[in-house]
Amino acid sequence: MKRSAFSTRAICTAALVLAFGTTLAGCDTLNDWFSGDKVDYKATGSAPPLKVPGDLTTAAAPAQQYTAPPVGAALGGAPQRNKTVAGNATEGVPSAQDPYGMHIERDGDRRWLVVDGRSPEQLWPQLQAFWQENGFALATDAPATGIMETAWAENRANIPDDWFRRTVGRLIDFAYSSGTRDRFRTLVARGPDGATDISITHSALEEVLTGQDKDSSRWVERPRNPVLEAVFLTKMMQKFGLTEAQSKELLANARPAAAPAKIEMSGGETSLDLPESFDRAWLRVGLALDRTNFTVDNRDRAKGIYYVRYADSAEELKRDGLFGKLFYRKPTADKQGPQFLVNVRPTSDTQTQVSIVDTSGNVVTSTEAQRILTLLHAQLN
Q1: Residue span of the signal peptide, if any (predicted)?
Q2: What sign results for the dihedral spanned by CA atoms 351, 357, 362, 364?
């Protein structure tokens, strides 16, 4: 059972806020999570509203290119939705293989959504709206690299609805916390045959009390929750036009897409060999990196390069919090840790090799490079 936190630190925070004159306004089964009261996220912070400077005059009339399209128009220049045999207006393109225009693929406990006949550019605006509608702010929004990541947010459904929350919590709700934070990363990749692959990766932190008198706390990492990832995949399918029952059906009938990776050592160099095409290997390596403590800063599919570095989630949350915005400085590039280049390259139509390289393309044989390959091997098998 999740604990509620109304600690001395929370009271101090409330006092500080008032001084500035500011008013702040796991389950084990999918069926449990699919009940509507298990997901109620609220971003940990938001930017102040924009204000128009007083010396600016109001524009006479908006140009046509800046006029909002009608409500029924497709987003981001995407084509209108297609009708399925079942009568859905679906985002994907229905076919005999995919009557709903989309399907789920899986590799172990990892799942991703394949939307047929749609490009990442066409789906990107709807993915932005999806996370915002579910209570998240976007910390990373990079359509050029296909990386979208939410800011840390709290699932308010984890807070017990007891007498304390119904009384004190109404007055200072921000001080009443579940003691957990979640973040979701979405990777959007161009798949074969004009499809788009969309994966969701969950990261989690939990606040634990420390000290002899339990008067302080620190954030520690919690394991990712594949069930929660699946829940958001079903919600995303509903965003794209399916019913709740149809999205659950696709999730239950996820198609296997596994191919074991092998570690190869030759001439002092270590690499991973995957018996699959580059398209599939590129996606799976991205998913595997997302489930380690290495975060993807950038990626270049044309060169087959993922740019990654070690990420300390607890430090990131400190910088994102109230005191972090006041006192923490953004770390400089030399203090963020070294960046590694993960090279995914095809050796044939059905074989792909993964190695760690430097900026010149030479294979790196350091201990850190071998550690990344070992982590990838574990995630890919």
Answers
A1: 1-25
A2: negative
Q: CB neighbours (10 Å) of residue 326? A: 8
Q: What is the C-alpha separation between 296 and 286, in angstroms, rounded?
A: 8
Backbone dihedral region of 32: left (phi > 0), alpha (psi from -120 to 50 degrees) or beta?
alpha
Cα angle 111, 115, 119 (rounded to 5 degrees) comes to 120
Token pair recorded at residue 228: 């929660």
Q: Are 304 and 282 in contact (CB under 8 A)?
A: yes
Tell me the pLDDT tens digit for each residue of 213-231. 877 888 888 888 999 999 9
**Can you tell me the distance from the alpha carbon of 230 to that of 321, in angstroms, rounded to the nearest whole number?**
28
pTM: 0.64
pLDDT digits over 280-327, tens only?
A: 889 888 888 877 777 788 889 999 999 988 765 555 555 555 444 444
Domains by residue range for the chain, with CATH: 1-44+74-258 (no CATH), 259-381 (3.30.310.170)
With b for 16 or more beta-carbon neighbours within 10 A and e for fewer, the 141-180 pattern comes to: eebebbbbbbbbbbbbbbbeeeeebeeebeebebbbbbbb
